[in-house]
DNA sequence: ACGCTCAATCTCGTATGCATGAATGGATCG
DNA sequence: CGATCCATTCATGCATACGAGATTGAGCGT
């Protein structure tokens, strides 16, 4: 699961997780210099990372201002969930068409992992696995593009839940719904599976209520923490000096 | 419709059109230097443009090789059409839910434009307008994200048709099908509209047969032509020298 | 005391340079 | 005569430099 580890991927992953876990609250400024300093790379690369995060809807980078963590509006949230419902339905449909017995075990494995994480009170991990379920489902559809889109949608939904959702139920009410969906898939009951999925989405979506104000965070500390967790080391990474000839 | 005109948008639009019109055949190398020279910008910006085109599936830019015009595989083509069918259905559904009388006129206007272009034998323009119909439909759904996805999908479909499709029927068999879809939308008949749309997609999709080899093209000539058409001037644009203090 | 203007500073936009890795053509060997 | 290996050339990866726009804080005026 872990990437090859080009520094640029580390920075991308670190920022993504930091945003999704709300360690970097919406509205937080993300200056290219500072980020580059902490990850040991130049603004050129940071810029690429921020561009990618923007295309994923996690960062808002307007023409000549400092990029900030995205603050999804309710309208955007509605759009995201709407499209996601549609693609989830399609994913379910395709998965049933191309069903193999191994699929059930694979999905159940994920649900178990999520359960385990939740029992360990690792809410963030559990939340991530909850989203992973849907991405895996899309992957099982055999459609790479669908998987990509679903991945992006799940990410955006996570941010939306982090912003508008109730503080601690990070992504899902419980994995029970996932289990039911798996059962319907296994039975080949497309209509029921889609119905369940839709209900599931409703539950997730119906947590668009609260609101919070973007407080200032110690960007440095957060980055160091996340970069460390991912790269396996901590603290700021110094820029690689000119190597000896 | 025309952009504000940052050079970077011009380059992006020019390359996009050149690729979709098959003036730059799949496999054609796209060196950053050369492109930059022709659009009067540095490799830094070209790189950003190429990255965007890659994310749109029009360019293939592998780690350390020169970027090339994308060569979609049949598997990719299948994925694209599959997802597009799903989103088209959803778009139709939403448009009917939020229908306003003005929608019909708007869509019909596009169809008429397409007809006119086709009568003038401007196949490329007609093809573009044919795709535009679907993007507009998605826009009328009121879902910005859906519009974005549809836009990307239509673009990719255009490339696929350019590669695998029959030489001259550039995007659509005819606007008749569009007219029928509009009628169903106006009648609020979601099932029929979705059925028509699906049939329409089938027709478009069923043109995955031929193949062609990537011949070498005079990149310079093509770029000059397309840059001229978009920017309103022609020829290579010299890099802006250091301006006097 | 409050608001406005302007200057100092913080970032971004973009070009360019240097180093490294791929592509290519020629020379050599079988 | 053909294939392979190596050197040269080309194109990219990345950092850095410089100029310009945005931000903000201080000083002035009312």
Describe, in plain words, how this protein is organized in 3D.
The structure is a homodimer of 245-residue chains. Chain A is an all-alpha fold and 245 residues long. Chain A folds into two domains: 7-70 and 214-231, Arc Repressor Mutant, subunit A, CATH 1.10.10.10; 74-205, Four Helix Bundle (Hemerythrin (Met), subunit A). Helix content of chain A is 64%, strand content 2%. The first copy, chain A, is built from ten helices and two strands; from the N terminus they run H-H-H-E-E-H-H-H-H-H-H-H. Chain A has helices at residues 7-20, 32-39, 43-55, 74-97, 101-119, 123-140, 144-164, 176-187, 190-205, 219-231, and strands at 59-60, 68-69. A two-stranded antiparallel sheet of chain A has the order 1-2. In chain A, helix 1 packs across helix 10 (219-231), helix 6 runs antiparallel to helix 7 and helix 8 (176-187) runs antiparallel to helix 9. Mean pLDDT of chain A is 84; it is low at 209-216 and 240-245. Chains A and B meet through helix 3, helix 4 and helix 7 of A and helix 3, helix 4 and helix 7 of B. The first copy, chain A, binds a DNA duplex (30 and 30 nucleotides) through residues 31-33, 41-45, 47, 63-66, 239-240, 242-243. Chains A, B: This is Transcriptional regulator. Chains A, B: InterPro entries: GntR_C, TF_FadR/GntR_C, Tscrpt_reg_HTH_GntR, WH-like_DNA-bd_sf, WH_DNA-bd_sf. Chains A, B: Keywords: DNA-binding, Transcription, Transcription regulation. Chains A, B: Residues 5-72 form the HTH gntR-type domain. Chains A, B: GO terms for molecular function: DNA binding; DNA-binding transcription factor activity.
């Amino acid at each position: 699961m872990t990437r090859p580890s080009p520094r640029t991927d580390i920075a991308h992953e670190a920022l993504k997780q930091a945003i999704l876990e709300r360690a970097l609250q919406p509205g937080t400024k993300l200056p290219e210099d500072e980020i580059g300093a902490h990850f040991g790379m130049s603004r050129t690369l940071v810029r690429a990372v921020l561009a990618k995060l923007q295309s994923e809807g996690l960062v808002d980078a307007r023409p000549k201002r400092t990029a900030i963590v995205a603050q999804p509006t309710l309208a955007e949230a509605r759009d995201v969930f709407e499209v996601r419902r549609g693609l989830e339905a399609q994913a379910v449909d395709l998965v049933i068409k191309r069903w193999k017995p191994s699929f059930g075990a694979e999905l159940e494995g994920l649900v178990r992992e999520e359960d385990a994480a939740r029992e360990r009170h690792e809410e963030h991990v559990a939340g991530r696995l909850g989203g992973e379920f849907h991405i895996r489902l899309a992957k099982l559809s055999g459609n790479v593009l669908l998987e990509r889109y679903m991945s992006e949608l799940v990410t955006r939904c996570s941010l939306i839940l982090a912003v508008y959702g109730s503080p601690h139920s990070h992504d899902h009410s419980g994995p029970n719904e996932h289990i039911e969906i798996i059962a319907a898939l296994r039975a080949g009951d497309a209509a029921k599976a889609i119905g369940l999925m839709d209900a599931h989405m409703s539950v997730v979506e119906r947590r668009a209520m609260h609101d919070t104000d973007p407080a200032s965070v110690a960007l440095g500390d957060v980055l160091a923490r996340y970069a460390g967790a991912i790269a396996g080391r901590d603290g700021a990474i110094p820029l690689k000096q000119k190597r000896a000839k």
